[in-house]
Design a protein that fits this description.
The chain has 336 residues and is α+β, with helices and mostly antiparallel strands. Among the domains are: 67 residues; 103 residues. The chain is built from eleven helices and four strands; from the N terminus they run ααβαααααββαααβα. The chain has a four-stranded antiparallel β-sheet with strand order 2-3-1-4. Helix 5 crosses helix 8 and helix 8 runs antiparallel to helix 10. The longest helix is centred in the middle third of the chain and has 57 residues. The radius of gyration is 42 Å and the shape is rod-shaped. The two termini are 13 Å apart.
Length: 336
């Protein structure tokens, strides 16, 4: 018999014959697998799923949104965030800082029965990644999903995860805002101190009668000319004495006056930055809008017992059939 004429055990006809010839064994395996899968389905711990959906807000300079006179839609702190805002918030949600904050808040290592394990930190991370998930939806919102054996605890932890994430995010912003505030405050204090010093110096010139050098010299010069025309010697002497005062103190006056003007411009600019930095350092707005707050679920999400039973039974049947086919093939090859 040639190879072409040999019947193949794996063609559809022979396969059906083979299955019917082993139906008792396959049926036994199927029943056993169904019973085992049912037991496993009821032994598996139940898990309830709670979900929070939130939209990141614009991470704007809060002070500019209030204080700036320029219209700019990107400064609208009431607007939803863009792609990078969702990505930034997702990084915070997936951070170890949030994970350990939740562990401390709910004593998760103990609740998960890991406190006696020598590698409890490693095991906890695996458990956490399985029970806490964070993802960006197609609508650019962020979904926080928490599984727990208690529905109330699942909802509580999901809501707490969003609150802690906001706290961590605000802490990052606050740290930068305080650094900027102290830098700008130093500049503002320096500008204010210099302004006070220059004002004290200018008070000397005001004390000797120099209030507006240019205007006063112009008026005194006109008065001197008029007194000379009229031949009023006393008036000429009085005006000449006053002009000497202006002549002797003009250079110092103008130096102080120019420094005051320049410092006024600098102080005005620094004051605006100082007010903005102060608002940013002292105030805060939520980093996201909560669309759906987590509530205790009514039904468990895991396990779905029907799927566990069906999947376990089908898997056992397929594996058993494959083992029988391979064993039968090997037996056939040994006879040749």
């Amino acid at each position: 018999m040639t190879n072409e004429n040999k019947p193949e055990i794996f063609d559809s006809g022979n396969l059906l014959v083979f299955i019917f010839s082993r139906w008792k064994f396959l049926l036994t395996i199927t029943i056993f697998a169904a019973v085992a899968s049912t037991v496993i389905a009821f032994v598996l711990p139940e898990k309830y799923k709670a979900t929070v959906v939130l939209f990141p807000s614009q991470n704007n300079n809060l002070s500019r949104a209030f204080l700036s006179l320029q219209a700019d839609e990107t400064k609208d702190f009431l607007s939803f965030g863009e792609d990078n805002n969702a990505e930034q918030m997702l990084q915070v949600l997936k951070s170890d800082q949030l994970m350990y904050a939740l562990e401390k808040r709910f004593d998760l290592i103990k609740n998960y029965g890991l406190e006696k394990s020598w590698d409890k930190d490693y095991l906890f991370k695996g458990e956490y990644e399985e029970l806490f998930s964070y993802s960006i939806t197609q609508y650019e919102s962020i979904e926080i999903t928490v599984l727990d054996k208690k529905p109330d605890m699942a909802a509580l932890m999901a809501n707490e995860a969003s609150r802690l994430a906001d706290s961590i995010f605000q802490g990052i912003i606050k740290q930068r805002a305080l650094t900027a505030y102290y830098i700008v405050k130093g500049q503002f204090d320096s500008a204010t101190a210099l302004s006070n010093k220059l004002e004290d110096s200018m008070n000397y010139y005001r004390g000797i009668g120099i209030l507006n050098w240019e205007y006063q010299v112009k008026e005194l010069t006109a008065g001197l000319a008029d007194a000379e025309v009229k031949g009023n010697a006393q008036a000429v002497k009085d005006i000449t004495d006053k002009l000497k005062i202006f002549q002797q103190n003009g250079k110092g006056y103008w130096i102080i006056a120019n420094e005051l003007e320049n410092n006024f411009i600098w102080l005005k600019q620094v004051k605006t930055s100082y007010e903005e930095a102060k608002v940013n350092a002292e105030q805060k707005i939520p980093s996201f809008f909560i669309a759906d707050k987590a509530t205790p679920p009514d039904r468990k999400s895991y396990p779905i017992r029907g799927l566990v039973v069906a999947g376990g039974t089908l898997a056992a049947l397929i594996i058993s059939l494959l083992v029988l086919l391979v064993a039968n093939r090997l037996k056939t090859l040994k006879k040749k």
